[in-house]
């Protein structure tokens, strides 16, 4: 099984695949996990000079550089496919501003979007790779065509474990009493024997209910979330907090975290009980699905100075709507505009 970014690149170079060859999402040898994909693109594109190039030429130069970075032979001409790099479910966007615009198509939750930051002098500075689900959660403009939401009604219990066990498909791959090493990161790919059972996640996180942390402000949802994620990482036994803006938040545990100070939960492009595959490497013989994801929903109240965690609800994606009320909003728009956070390229 490939482990480093260059292992995947070498495997693709040896495969004879081109960018249109279909690869199963999560394939252990040829599907490049998102963080490895991002590493290869940064290695291959940073410093690329696009100054003075016409738009069509610039587009081809970027796509050719992406092929070289990933181990594909670049075609003489690129087909107008969606996405452009079918084999890796990848599209590319070059950005001078933080206003990402996607025309005439909806975001796809399994598609990867390589957002390429270029300087005022048209030099590539950084590449960030996210999937459509993660981009949807950044949308504050309401321009995304379909975005799922759910509603919370709080009960008298401050701690709720909705799912007594993980999904039957995931159970063979969880292990009680997992010990995490100093080198293990919460954003690592999940591994066989490294996943805590959902009951243990509930037990470990229950101690956070009743605790508080400083409120960075009502317009600082990401910073609120980061403070909570840091506390969760410590409770689960990680030596450090890391967040790459991926779904699920704590990838190593297939754990998505929601901090709620209102009763409406934003779910993005995918329903939690969906059986679609996650953008995650195969876990033994299992390709994790959205419904296998574990959700930790923390409800909180704030007085403007401190955020106090008042309730915790833990569930699998499969059981999500046995506890939460589903509703959705639909907007039709030919252009999606997503304002990227100022720290988008640094997180």
How far apart, in Å, are the first and last alpha carbons? 28 Å
Assign an overall shape.
Answer: globular
Mean pLDDT: 89
Number of beta-strand segments: 13
Number of domains: 2
Low-pLDDT segments = none
Strand percent estimate: 15-25%
Most strands sheet: 5 strands, mixed
Give the topology string: H per helix, E per strand.
HHHEEEEHEEHEHEEEEHEE
Radius of gyration, CA atoms, in whole angstroms:
21 Å
Number of continuous helical runs:
7
| Overall helicity | 10-25%
The computed structural class is alpha/beta
What does this structure look like?
With 347 residues, this protein is an alpha/beta fold. It has two domains: 5-145 and 332-339, no CATH class; 148-330, no CATH class. 21% of the residues lie in helices and 23% in strands. It has helices at 5-15, 34-45, 55-70, 132-136, 198-206, 221-236, 320-323; strands at 90-95, 99-103, 112-118, 124-131, 146-151, 159-161, 212-214, 255-260, 264-268, 294-302, 306-316, 325-330, 335-339. Strands 6, 7, 8, 10 and 11 form a five-stranded mixed sheet that branches. Helix 1 (5-15) packs across helix 2. The two termini are 28 Å apart. The model has no long low-confidence stretch (mean pLDDT 89).
Topology:
Blueprint: H1 5-15, H2 34-45, H3 55-70, E1 90-95, E2 99-103, E3 112-118, E4 124-131, H4 132-136, E5 146-151, E6 159-161, H5 198-206, E7 212-214, H6 221-236, E8 255-260, E9 264-268, E10 294-302, E11 306-316, H7 320-323, E12 325-330, E13 335-339
Helix pairs in contact: 1-2, 2-3
